[in-house]
Design goal:
By secondary structure, the chain is of the alpha/beta class. The protein has helices at residues 6-20, 24-32, 35-48, 64-69, 85-97, 136-145, 164-186, 189-200, 205-214; strands at 55-58, 78-82, 104-108, 121-127, 147-158, 217-225, 230-237. The chain has a single domain (6-162, 204-237), classed as Rossmann fold. The protein has 9 helices and 7 strands, in the order H-H-H-E-H-E-H-E-E-H-E-H-H-H-E-E.
Length: 238
């Protein structure tokens, strides 16, 4: 499954998120014991501080990162881009309930080929999405392209913990617990088997930081949460 590459992998991930879209928020809360709300708020604060203008939220999913960004008074509009229409439909319903439908703009699109002009956004965010990109350097290059010079790119992602013991415990928990939760609450064992496999094949916070710097970001601010399994990395476009 995770050996799929390029368009095949993108199609698999899009289909998977479409199937679990209605249960996605519940499963996130169960898997993280509700901590994902705090991590996302911390990342949104970092992304929205000292910026002025529209923000792009890539891999916006059900919209929670976008809605946290819109809590900041200096943020007027957030464009939420995702390749899963089903996930965005959930986000749209939530935005209406929150009274944010005029400030949340949903767009179906591909992170590797963003449909926006160069330097369009003051800030770009990606919450739990870069791990799913089929070509990470290409996607990051396009994210940086649409970010203003001096603007921010902020990534919130699950990473491999640094310590050997933490890494082993973390991966064992994910491999054992996540598929079982997925089968019970979402009726989709295969989709939630993908999550621990994608983490196991992903990188450390140091490796991800180096890739972000290579994409043209500077003055990186790095925070780790969840015993080093969660990274919040924010940098400025040079």
């Amino acid at each position: 499954m995770v050996q799929l590459k390029g368009n095949d992998r993108s199609a698999f991930v899009a289909s998977m998120f479409g199937r679990i879209s209605r249960r996605y928020d519940l499963l996130n809360t169960l898997m993280t014991v509700g901590m994902h709300y705090i991590w996302r708020r911390n990342a949104a604060k970092l992304a929205a501080t000292h910026v002025s203008g529209d923000i792009l939220d890539v891999a916006s999913g059900t919209g929670d990162f976008a809605f946290d960004l819109l809590k900041h008074s200096n943020v007027e509009i957030v464009v939420g881009l995702d390749f899963s229409p089903e996930m965005l439909n959930v986000a749209i319903s939530k935005s209406v309930k929150l009274g944010l439908d005029g400030r949340f703009i949903p767009v179906i699109g591909d992170a590797h080929l963003l449909p926006f002009s160069e330097e369009r956004f003051a800030s770009v965010t990606v919450g739990f999405g870069v791990r799913n990109f089929s070509d990470l350097p290409k996607a990051l290059a396009d994210i940086v392209r649409v970010t203003r010079r001096g603007g921010k790119v902020t990534v919130l992602e699950i990473v491999r913990p640094r310590g050997r013991l933490a890494s082993v415990l973390f991966l064992r928990y994910f491999r054992w617990m996540t598929p079982k939760l997925g089968r019970f609450f979402a009726g989709d064992y295969e989709a939630y088997k993908y999550l621990p496999e994608s983490v196991q094949n992903f990188m450390s916070v140091t490796q991800l930081s180096e890739i972000l710097e290579g994409a043209g970001l500077r003055n990186l601010v790095v925070e780790t949460k969840g015993m080093g399994s969660i990274a919040i990395i924010s940098g400025e476009r040079s």
